[in-house]
Amino acid sequence: MAKKENTLKQKAASGMVWTALQKYSTMGIQFISGIILARLLTPYDYGCIGMLSIFMVLAEAFIDGGFGSALIQKKQPTQEDYSTIFWWNLGMAVVMYAVLFFCAPAISRFYKIPLLCNVLRVQGLVLFIYAFNIVQRNQLRKKLNFKVLSIVTITTSIFSLGVTIFMAYKGFGVWALVAQNLITAAIPALVFWFFVKWRPIMAFSKQSFKELFSFGGYMFLTHLVERFSTQLTGLVIGKVYNPSTLGYYSKALGTERLASQTISSIMTQVTYPLYAEAQDNRPLMINMIKRLTTTISYITFPMMFILMLTAKPLFILLYSDRWVQSIPYFQVLCIAGFAACLQSVNLQTISAIGKSKTMLVWTIVKRIIGLLAMVGGLLVFGMKGLLAGVIINAWFSYFVNISLVSKHIGYKWSRQLLDIMPVGIASIVAAGIAFFSVHFLHLNMYLDGALKLIVYLVIYLGWSFIFKPDSYTYFLSIIPTKFRIWERKNKKQK
Questions:
Q1: Is the pTM above the cut of 0.85?
Q2: How many whole angstroms separate alpha carbon 183 and alpha carbon 189?
């Protein structure tokens, strides 16, 4: 058991290093892209893309059908398994593109924006590219070959950024964002096709399909419900208000997710295959979940508080005065971000042990309540009601997820809350002191933000160094040895 645990730790550490490199490089590129494009494009342009997101996301969900997760969850998938899913993906891409193509005029009339018809038809080509490389991408993930995934993703992001900025500068508007989506999908598809030596055979196995569908079918429905509920908010905002309002909300949501979900996505992308491998060893899984949740909370909680404290100077500095209306949306969304950053950690463990039906049932429950809160709040109280609904949805989902882990894995929900409580308390105290010690000094906007940042970091890091909580220790353990400067200093002193 100890040997297996050490092997999994080594795989996880290597995967996390490469995935972190990918995510932070991509995040940096997106960050630069967001700063430049926010000055070249308008909230209207972003809003137009946001209006079509629900249709694209649902179409992509039908293509994958949950089979990607099923292939990773299955311990030894065969050539027939892979080929069957490949042909399924390609066939569904044809069907879903046809649906989008013929529905595009009706969608543009629904929003009363004629441009959306052609935008949707062109952007829909992403579906073919997406279907073409799902199997290869999942093979790399299953083998934990995150090095290739990272290099390809970073290279693609740089190239697509250059093209998008050029097109935006030349006045292509929303078409610059369409080109970005196509390029981001096309380059990895070509590279993975030639790098991964696997090729489909001319076979579609009913037995393989049935076996994978027993798990993947529920995953498909889960993803469908999840993605529909996530994107429905944008559809309602775009219909009730206008593309610009949706653009402000989308910018706030995108910036918040960049902070709240980047860390968790790095770790969960690596740990899902490891969860699947360790699914029969519950004590090991509990230990993995504990380390993961406490580490994510240690990094993400202070990040969210710092962003809330410095939101105004941050948005104006990065995106210009044009996006000032996004600031209150962003600050409220950060409250939901605390729960969102931990949701996938718990949810993926339920998936990894094969409880896909349980996931589906509870996803439906969570999303019905979440949609009632968000859409109901929007229609009754406007954008303030929507934002309150987002917070309710995020925290309700989190408590459901930790309850499922408590029941099926054995990591009690009360224990999980106690494990992250020290980080939560330290983060809140640091935020309170940073706000009240600086706010009443009436400094200019940028100096106010900078001083709040400094005060927060001094308090939070001081707490970490003095009390050395488990979350701090776990965080240090994932840092590669060659970057542990403090250890080298201690060795030299000895």
A1: no
A2: 10
